[in-house]
Amino acid sequence: MKRIVCSVGALLLLGSALKADIMVYGPGGPAPVLKELAKQFEEQTKHKVQVVAGPTPSWIEQAKKDADIIFSGNSSMMDGFIKTLPKQLETNNIQVLNIRQAGIVVRPGNPKKIKTFDDILQKGVKVMVVDGAGQVGLYEDIALRKGKRENLATLRKNIVFYAPNSKAAVEKWNQDKSIDALIIWSHWAHTLGSDSAAFVSLKADEVIYRAAEIAVSNTSKQKDVAQQFIDFVRSKGAEQVWKKWGWQAN
């Protein structure tokens, strides 16, 4: 029975893809913004946009076949996509979208009273970090922003879980209530919701920013419509949607 259900689900996904004017692929971070803007774009232009998002292995092979647009969570991730998708992407067609800040997700009500980066260095604070996808080295960058080696050494002792990507981090956060803090992008607090998380901003001399990026695939048969959608995503009218999901609008 499970095999039949999966087959039906695959057929439904294939059917929706066939009806789409453009196919868009990328990670889960910027996806809520792009999905909401895709609906608005379709209402205004009647061009359907299908956004497929998640960890890279879940969509990369299909993207090789029919991607019109590829987006990323940061520049290093896009650089990886350029290497993986050489027919679809090249450096000179990458367009920079909006930025988000890294900070600390804490439990509702902030029971550990975490207000600064130094607070997660205290003994007994259980920290989770993301050490993959668009956040490779992020916790190290934050810890060493002030040039203090001891900050990284102390943080290492408090890290109890290294998530391979943001999706895995969110799942672990919901499953393991013993974790006190999660170093991750600000918009994931919005995704988790106020019942599960609150966000603590880092000080100006501690915070790290990274930008989402996007590109029209070289193999797209709908390049004009694809660029039209990207222009819509980058437009002034789209700024409120970016802000709604925890990004800094341009």
Description:
It is a single chain. With 250 residues, the chain is α/β, with parallel strands linked by helices. The protein has two domains: 22-98 and 212-245, Periplasmic binding protein-like II (D-Maltodextrin-Binding Protein, domain 2); 100-201, D-Maltodextrin-Binding Protein, domain 2 (3-Layer(aba) Sandwich), CATH 3.40.190. Helix content is 40%, strand content 21%. It has ten helices and nine strands. It has helices at 2-19, 31-45, 60-66, 75-84, 138-143, 149-158, 166-175, 187-192, 223-233, 239-244, and strands spanning 22-26, 49-53, 69-72, 95-106, 127-130, 159-163, 181-185, 198-201, 209-216. Strands 1, 2, 3, 4, 5, 6, 7, 8 and 9 form a nine-stranded mixed sheet that branches. It is elongated and about 55 Å long. Mean pLDDT is 91; it is low at 1-18.
What is the structure about, briefly put?
Helix content is 40%, strand content 21%. It is of the alpha/beta class and 250 residues long. It has two domains: 111 residues, Periplasmic binding protein-like II (D-Maltodextrin-Binding Protein, domain 2, 3-Layer(aba) Sandwich), CATH 3.40.190.10; 102 residues, Periplasmic binding protein-like II (D-Maltodextrin-Binding Protein, domain 2).
Output mean pLDDT. Answer: 91
The value of Rg in angstroms is 19 Å
Tell me the β content: 15-25%
Structural class: alpha/beta
| Shape, principal axes of CA atoms | elongated
Number of strands: 9
The biggest sheet amounts to:
9 strands, mixed
Protein name: Molybdate ABC transporter, periplasmic molybdate-binding protein
InterPro entries: ModA/WtpA
Keywords: Signal
GO biological process, one term: molybdate ion transport
